[in-house]
User: What shape does this take?
Amino acid sequence: MKAKITLLPGDGIGPEVVASAVEVLRAVAAKHSHEFMFDEQLIGGAAIDAHGDPLPPATVASCKSADAVLLGAVGGPKWSDPNAKVRPEQGLLALRATLGVYANLRPVRVHPKLANLSPLKNEKLQNVDMLFVRELTGGAYFGAKTRTADTATDECKYTVAEIERATRRAFEFARGRKKHVTHVDKANVLETSRLWRSTVERVAKDYPEVKLEHQLVDSMAMLLLTRPSAYDVIVTENLFGDILTDEAAALAGSLGLLPSASLGDGKAGLYEPIHGSAPDIAGKGLANPLGTILSVALLLRYSLGLEAEAKEVEAAVDAVIEQGTLTRDLGGSANTSEVGAAVLARLGTAQKEAA
Assistant: This one.
């Protein structure tokens, strides 16, 4: 297979974790005789510094022509002035809108070896395996905004079409999993949530084999920590999904461990770890590359259709966790390159075992 992958290392630890993930992609390509072509471009703070634009035209053109986009992280103290007219995060939001990726997938699975890192008791973490489907291009993040000396507004707006396309993705994934969808909203207060609820209920009728339940976002925040194994696929709006998925990262033990995929109607997607740019550890070799490497597995699965290769990468990461080659956030002492090298070694071992 031939594929073009645009690389957006971004800011902070982004370049470090993307570098490790690219080595994994190169190893997969060499092992299975694929041809992956990489095109590195700027986004976020790095792009502001170079071009005064968090998403330059060259970046947009490369991403639009790519089979997949791999992103590191954006932002940092250098560009953190809330009154600045140009901010790194604007580049990421604009990229999502430009690519038309509306469903953000965030799988959360607890590795037994890391259960002790979670603030929850081990027995609550058994069989935790959930998939968040977060609507990505609507809601308060994209609504009209106003600001005066003493007032501010952020419009939260949704259309039926936006809700339906994300919801259908959630039900399709649930079909192949435990056939259970939990919809999270605030329908007792918000009109947008009432539209979400009625639309989700209508879509659910097309999937009679899938059980649907509704949870209010405030109670869901509690339930994620008190009975996380009860959930399979969770679908929700943009802002709620952003908050709940970061909370769910506590179940896995670290933000550095979790991947994400942002998908639209085509095969091309945007892949990134859920963590931020972590400027306090940037350049020190302390960043955990596993979330980005697992994002590569999602890239192989969803954009390139390489399921066997995706499973190999995930198995290699599991093996590295099991053997204890871990960065500081996971209780280990390995640096970024050592963890990446351990994954590459496991991929090589898997090849020998298969032979």
In short: The chain has a mean pLDDT of 94. Residues 234 and 263 are 16 Å apart (CA to CA). The first helix runs from residue 14 to 32.
